[in-house]
Amino acid sequence: MSEHKRSILLNPGPVTLTEGVRNALHRGDWCHREPEFADLTRDINGRLVRVYREMAGAFDAVMLTGSGTSAVEAMLASFAPQDSTTLVVINGVYGERIAKILTVHGKPHTVVASAWDEPMDIDRVRSELDMQPEISHVVAVHHETTTGRLNDMSELGELCRKQGVNLLLDAVSSFGAEAINVDEWNVAALAATANKCLHGVPGIAFVLARKAMWKEGLQPAGSVYLDLAAYYQGQHGEGFSPFTQSVQAAFSLRQALEELEDEGGWEQRRSNYRRRAGRIAVTLKQLGLETMLSPEEYSCVLWSWLLPKGLSYSDVHAALKAEGFVVYAGQGDLSKHIFRIAHMGDIHEDDLDRLDNVLRSCFS
Predict the structure, then answer these.
(1) For 298, which DSSP code?
(2) CB 198 within 8 A of CB 176
(3) Tell me, what DSSP letter sits at residue 291?
(4) CA 191, CA 200: separation in Å to the nearest integer?
(5) Rounded CA gap, 197 and 143, in Å?
(6) Which domains does the chain possess?
(7) Are 12 and 342 in contact (CB under 8 A)?
């Protein structure tokens, strides 16, 4: 790869950083127990609940040092009950991971699973809710990056609202770029991360939950590090966390949230991602490639593409990486059949021009 070429990450996080976010990593060396970091924590948590107007005033946030999965596990450990059942809706790797987390924590749960290339099975969810009145919580993945599917939460959310069931949402790969209708979907809590649609660096994740959940919905976590009760008490008290936070990652998250606000919020970010997705799709379809799902089923964040006959993922990855673009493999058995392109991060028009030329060279 030529040195003058900017490296562009087209994997589903981490992302190519803006100069502002990258420079924020150098703002200084702070102790996480000093009042200025407590102020920064409060500021970040306040900005997180304002990313979506509907959440402001109704939700509180806590942040923790870890990946998106750490936030999902903390949410499940702290909010999934021990004395009733949680229903997990699965149609990909990350839904399966949720079920595994609940198993490890000994939380009573049942699953409604679909094939990875299929939508959520709402009819079966409805049947399970009707047959099992002990189900008090439902967990689902909003954007299942296994395939790029944006799960349609409206019908699932309506079921949860009508039956008085709390929805716990894995929004790791959608927060900041897709609509999240917390009232319509009866969302009680959601988990997400800095290093995807928010364009921060890896290392900070967070959980947002309704104020009532923080007061009345917390469960014995069965974990020391992932016990959100301790984070909430600390961050919404004196502003400190029970464990060391990633200070420099917090600097860059604050900068990333400011840039999201300046850009026009999640709606504008979704528009930008959709435009990038459309431009890339035009090129790949001209070259004879096909998507794994129907285009209308995808999120704006990531699309999955079928590998053309005679080319392996390794071939495609190597050809693009040599020119400064990093794409992503399929997971499990899909690794032989698809590759994935994400549209997040600091991607400019000249980057897309160059990507167009590289794709034509790779697939012609």
Answers:
(1) B
(2) yes
(3) B
(4) 15
(5) 12
(6) 8-15+265-363 (3.90.1150.10), 20-262 (3.40.640.10)
(7) yes
Q: Is 318 exposed, middle or buried (0-12, 13-18, 19+ CB in 10 A)?
A: exposed
Burial of residue 121, with CB atoms counted within 10 A of its CB: 0-12 exposed, 13-18 middle, 19 or more buried: middle
The pLDDT value given to residue 357: 97
Task: State the amino acid at position 88 in one-letter form.
Answer: V
What's the CA gap between 300 and 148, in Å, rounded?
9
Q: State the burial class of residue 274 (Cβ atoms within 10 Å of its Cβ: 0-12, 13-18, 19+).
A: middle
Query: Two tokens at 36?
Result: 């200025």
Phi, psi (deg, nearest 5) at residue 35: -60, -30
Encode pLDDT of 79-116 as tens digits: 999 999 999 999 999 999 999 999 999 999 999 999 99
Question: What percent of the chain has pLDDT above 70?
Answer: 99
Interstrand relation of 135-141 and 85-90 (parallel, antiparallel or unpaired) = parallel
For 45-82, give one letter per residue: b (16+ CB within 10 A) or e: bebbbbbbeebeeebbbbbbbbbbbbbbbbbbbbbbbe
Contacts of 286 (CB under 8 A, 6+ apart): none
pTM, two decimals, is: 0.97
Task: Please provide residue 136's backbone torsions phi and psi, each rounded to the nearest 5 degrees.
Answer: -110, -20
- Return all residues near 167 (Cβ < 8 A) that are at least 6 apart: 137, 138, 139, 140, 156, 157, 160, 185, 186, 187, 188
Taking a C-beta distance cutoff of 8 angstroms, is the pair 141, 92 a contact? Answer: yes
pLDDT tier for residue 2 given thresholds of 50, 70 and 90: very low
- Note the Cα 346 to chain centre separation in Å: 17
Mean of pLDDT values over 334-341: 97
Region of 324 on the Ramachandran plot (φ > 0 left; ψ -120 to 50 alpha; else beta): left
252 near 21, Cβ under 8 Å? yes
Percent of the chain with pLDDT over 90: 98
**Encoded tokens for 143:** 């954007």
Token couple for 16? 């190519």
